[in-house]
Design goal:
Blueprint: E1 2-3, E2 7-9, E3 12-14, E4 26-32, E5 37-42, E6 51-52, E7 72-73, E8 76-82, E9 91-97, E10 103-110, E11 117-126, E12 131-137, E13 144-145, E14 155-162, E15 169-176, E16 185-198, E17 203-207, E18 219-220, E19 229-236, E20 238-242, E21 246-247, E22 254-264, E23 269-278, E24 289-290, E25 309-318, E26 326-336, E27 347-350, E28 353-356, E29 360-363, E30 367-368, E31 371-372, E32 375-380, H1 384-391, E33 397-405, E34 408-426, E35 430-437
Antiparallel strand pairs: 1-19, 2-3, 3-17, 4-5, 4-19, 5-17, 5-18, 6-16, 7-10, 8-9, 9-16, 10-15, 11-14, 11-16, 12-13, 12-15, 20-25, 21-25, 22-26, 23-24, 23-25, 27-28, 29-32, 30-31, 32-35, 33-34, 34-35
């Protein structure tokens, strides 16, 4: 997005529009009227309405005086003036220029913490004379001007800055007269310098590194002038994606685990995978563990997984516009002991193959002069997956029936290979089918037939 805003100052940006959705995971590039740019990351402070700390100024409301405690003057006369409407006290500071004084100021030094963003503000009024203004200068930074007030109306000036050097900061009440005849009057009220601890939804702190705390640009073109900034562009530089939670109850007690992924991570980008466990498929884990591809899942310990849900989180960052990491695949494997009845799948192993016990009945073929006859197969219809599979099959399925003894599972006593399963029918309780050998004498000629499986349109309703 590209647009304009109201105020731009180093370490804090006031946009004038709600940008709360961009805090913490976006980068901003600011461009001035000479096409010079500076970039920074938006701090993760969540905007909850601007929050300010304790005032660094002494007697900023000018209630103690005259002479006004905490303030030093140059060639002026100070008296108490009338408090502005809505002010915080009962008086303001009125300055009367002395003869021979064409410009002067009242100022105060105070201490600031390096790297902290401060909001400075105050009210000015030119009763007579040319203009007056608020001026603020943080340690090690250029002065900030609140705007000249040429009118006999109270004017509020404010801005933001950051101290580069501890101490050496000061606030001015500055003015200029029409001439040096003296007697010109200027008023000042409710000055303050307060640390900014949280932003309004329309502002953002800027930092030099993603997730860092240093209040500075990440990069800046030579000659860039923030006072002439006219456009900005905000881009997302980090993102998080959650995989659906997996119920681990069927694992029983975990005996091992592995997580592995394939990704493309260009230079200046990062990809980090985290795992976590929770006891609900709706609530995310309280804590996350960083994973290593090809290694055990750190969140899966060798304990009972009953009622546990595994979550996988992908965290990606980029420091370069238009470049981002990509994750092409991720796999998770967890083994367990399957110790409870609800977790057991009963079966056996014969000749190296695993067979699951199912409710099946079969009538073996008769041995006749013409060869083996047909077999009848009957299965209890206990799951809809059976009928779904039957409906998806359009050609006979080749089957093999072997007989083994339970005390010699690897020895095949009788075998019927290459039987075709045909004539399948089912109802709510039972599935039946016929197993028979394929013989050329019983094959239809020609081979094609107009049957629903091949020509469903012929059997549809008109």
């Amino acid at each position: 997005m590209t647009t304009s805003w109201t105020t731009l100052l180093l370490a804090y940006i006031e946009f004038g529009v709600d940008i709360s959705a961009y805090h913490g995971n976006h980068k901003i590039v600011v461009t001035d009227s000479a096409s010079k740019s500076a970039s920074a990351y938006l701090h993760s402070v969540a905007p909850g309405g601007e929050t300010l700390g304790t005032d660094a100024l002494t007697n900023g409301s000018f209630e103690v005086g005259p002479p006004f405690t905490g303030w030093q003057d140059i060639l002026s006369t100070q008296i108490a003036g009338t408090e502005r409407s809505g002010g915080s006290g009962s008086q303001c500071m009125r300055v009367i220029a002395n003869v021979g004084e064409s410009a002067s100021r009242v100022y105060q030094y105070f201490d600031e913490t390096v790297g902290t963003v401060y909001k400075y503000s105050g009210y000015t009024r030119t009763v007579s004379g040319e203009w007056c203004e608020l001026r603020y200068q943080a340690g090690g930074s250029n002065p900030k001007y609140g705007g000249k007030n040429y009118t006999d109306t109270w004017f509020e000036a404010s801005g933001y800055s950051v101290a580069a050097i501890s101490g050496l900061s000061f606030m001015y009440c500055e003015w200029r007269c029409v001439d040096s005849a003296g007697g010109y009057i200027f008023e000042f009220d409710d000055y303050s310098v307060k640390p900014l601890t949280d932003c309004a939804a329309t502002g953002a702190l800027i930092v030099s590194t993603l997730g860092g705390a240093t209040r500075a640009w990440a990069s800046v073109d030579t000659g860039f002038n923030p006072n002439l900034a006219c456009t900005y562009e905000i881009s997302r530089i980090e993102g998080t994606r959650l995989s659906p939670p997996v119920d681990l109850t069927s694992i029983g007690t975990a005996t091992g685990s592995t997580i592995e992924w394939t990704a493309d991570v260009p230079e200046n980008t990062t990809l980090t995978i985290y795992s976590g466990l929770s006891e609900s498929d709706e609530e995310e884990p309280v804590s996350w563990d960083e994973c290593t591809s090809g290694a055990p899942i750190p969140s899966v310990t060798l304990t009972d997984m009953a009622g546990k849900y595994l979550w996988i989180k992908q965290y990606m960052t980029t420091a370069e516009e238009g470049v981002s990491p990509s994750l092409s695949s991720i796999s998770v494997e967890i083994t367990g002991d399957y110790t409870t009845d609800s977790q057991l799948a009963y079966g056996t192993v014969s000749d190296g193959d695993v067979f699951i016990f199912l409710p099946v009945r079969i009538k073996l073929p008769d041995d006749t002069d013409e060869g083996p006859g047909e077999m009848q197969l009957e299965i209890d219809n206990v799951h809809r997956a059976y009928t779904e599979t039957i409906r998806s099959v359009y050609t006979p399925v080749t089957c093999q029936v072997d007989i083994v003894m339970d005390n010699a599972l690897d020895t095949i006593d009788a075998s019927w290979p290459e039987f075709k399963l045909v004539n399948i029918s089912y109802n709510a309780t039972t599935i039946t089918g016929t197993l028979k050998l394929e013989t050329l004498e019983t094959e239809p000629y020609p081979s094609g037939s107009f049957v629903p499986s091949y020509f469903p349109g012929l059997f549809g309703r008109g």
